[in-house]
Amino acid sequence: MTISDRVRIKDVRVLSDGWTPLKNTTFDYRRANGEWQTQHRETYERDNAAAVLPYNRARRSVILVRQFRLPAFIRGYDDLLIEAAAGVLDDALPEVRIRAEAEEETGYRLHDVHKVFEAFMSPGAVTEKLHFFVAEYEPEMRVSDGGGLEHEGEDIEVLELGIDEALAMIANGRIIDAKAIMLLQYAALHIFR
User: Where are the domains of the chain?
Assistant: First the structure.
């Protein structure tokens, strides 16, 4: 029996269709004991996205970005968030989109991006799946100041940090973005060993 055999969608209502749709779904779910149970869930229908950690092995450095994030602020985080560069796929292949996003946000034109894993970041409520990449960078690959796209409301600061400093910033709570944490831990295990 597949999961599809255990789910019957009964009703889907759009609650909001602003920046991205918020839907309420009523469905029947067949529990492990065979009984059917009616459930209701709200889902935030986010498109898939990609994130990248540019690294320089010789310099033992990484590129991260710092920007304002309203949801973090609403939750009480009174600082700019330090993150891995990331963006929505917009119907492009993850490898193509992450190169463009990295250049927009960091100013670096990355050549070879390597996919390391995929993950649902909040599968209880958000449909988005992220594609995670790493890419080696050299100083001469910087083609602009980065900073993101002003018409999209982006006001991004580019950070070049030593890997040890970045990992310490996870431990002391200065880096709390899950994308950055996951990619930095990947880099610590597989790149900067």
Answer: 3-44, 49-191
User: Does 144 have pLDDT greater than 80?
Assistant: yes
Is 180 marked as a binding-site residue? no
pLDDT at 124 over 80: yes
Residue 35 assigned to a binding site: no
pLDDT of residue 24 exceeding 90, the answer is: yes
**Helix/strand/coil for 19:** coil
On whether 140 is known to bind a ligand per the annotation, the reply is no
* Residue 154 labeled ligand binder: yes
Report pTM: 0.94
Can you name the residues that pair with 51 across neighbouring β-strands? 86, 132
CATH of 49-191, one of 3.30.420.40, 3.90.79.10, 3.40.50.720, 3.20.20.80: 3.90.79.10
Cβ atoms of 163 and 61 within 8 Å: the answer is yes
